[in-house]
Amino acid sequence: MTETPESKQNQRQGAREPAINLPAGILALLALMLAVHLARSLVLNERSDLLLLIWTAFTSFRITDPSELPGGMLPLIWTPFTYAMLHADWLHLGFNSVWLAAFGTPVARRYGFWPMLVLFFVSSAAGAALFAAFPSAGILIGASGGVAGLTGAACRFIFQPLIVHRDPETGQQHVLGRQLATFGELVRDRRAGVFILVWIAGNAVVPLLPDLFGGTGTISWQAHLGGFLAGLLLVPLFERKPKEDAL
């Protein structure tokens, strides 16, 4: 069989296709979370890991009784963000990683590296804030708040129909993307509405899971809900106006 220039070009393009087709921002977050958990599991001893939790995990105890913990209230400057890089075990890390890849990817592709990271960490902080509104002596760890924020942001456009522009001269069609939905459009869209209702209902039963399946840890519905609402509300700030010549 004779190879044509077109077939050779297709082969080269296929060879360049990455094995893991995830945006750079998502890969960076996944790598950082994995590195932190590997260090905690394989490098740090029990005392060092405890110190890491004290200084980087979030706890409302620093607000209600800051004198009982090293650093007092000062770590509240960074712990609403750093807690998102810590995980209780490999299952916790794996679940958050899969959810991050699934719902963070469309956000990263729509808005880019830095806006996605800002949304992730702002949503993490919003999750910590709602967690603090329900005082607890426990600590908050895990990327769930940030991932929930990216999920909320994605809900504003992934269910919207594709916008297709037809060139008036050539008739060629160009896919322009999806419009960001208003809250009214979200309510009227059955798929979006069902997804959001199922997501909220699922988080309503989250506190019962440790009792049903065993385990000593608890799952913070507050961080999930706070992060989700932050992403849902704040994503319009990152919208870019379409170029006039693209319409």
What value does the average pLDDT take? 84
- Taking pLDDT < 50 over at least 5 consecutive residues as the criterion, the unreliable ranges are 1-10, 243-247
User: How many domains is the backbone divided into?
Assistant: 1
Report how far the terminal alpha carbons are from each other.
44 Å
Q: What is the fold named in CATH at topology level?
A: Rhomboid-like fold
Query: What's the helical proportion of residues?
Result: 55-70%
CATH class: Mainly Alpha
Q: Can you count the beta strands?
A: 2
Quick one: CATH superfamily? Rhomboid-like
| Secondary-structure class | mainly alpha
Main sheet, how many strands, which sense, barrel?
2 strands, antiparallel
Radius of gyration, in angstroms, nearest whole number: 22 Å
Tell the overall outline. globular
Q: Based on the coordinates given, report the CATH architecture.
A: Up-down Bundle
Oligomer: single chain
The number of helical elements comes to 12
Determine the strand fraction and express it as a percent band. Answer: under 5%
